[in-house]
Design a protein that fits this description.
This protein has 114 residues and is mainly α. The protein has a domain of 71 residues. Helix content is 64%, strand content 0%.
Length: 114
């Protein structure tokens, strides 16, 4: 028979492991989302400057995003395409990632509802 204290300790340990897994999942999603936000901002600046195509200088950044984000596998993230085309792909990828984020309702803000 397992003592109540041991059972409680096991429950606490499992709860901590689950929380770490959830925090890692959130962190894993934040990096690509930030990178996508930065790329979208760069594309907007290029459009404001009158550019039509993604400069080749952005290729390493696009490759890094593709490497760190498996969800980008079916997306054409490359330089040389039109800026609008790349932005469409980035927004699509961002939407997919945001749809997969950990549900924040599982972590309610204690200050909310006051």
């Amino acid at each position: 028979m397992i003592s109540p204290l041991r059972r409680t300790n096991e429950q606490i340990a499992e709860s901590l492991r689950a929380r770490r897994r959830e925090q890692w999942a959130r962190h894993r999603m934040r990096r690509p989302i930030r990178a996508i936000d930065g790329l979208i901002a760069e594309c907007e600046e290029l459009l404001l400057l009158g550019r039509k195509r993604v400069p080749l200088a952005m290729e390493p950044e696009l490759q890094r995003l593709s490497a760190q984000c498996p969800e980008a596998a079916g997306t054409e993230l490359r330089a040389g395409v039109t800026i609008v085309h790349l932005m469409d792909d980035l927004f699509s990828l961002q939407e997919d990632l945001l749809g997969r984020r950990v549900d924040r309702s599982a972590y309610p803000d204690p200050d909310e509802g006051e």
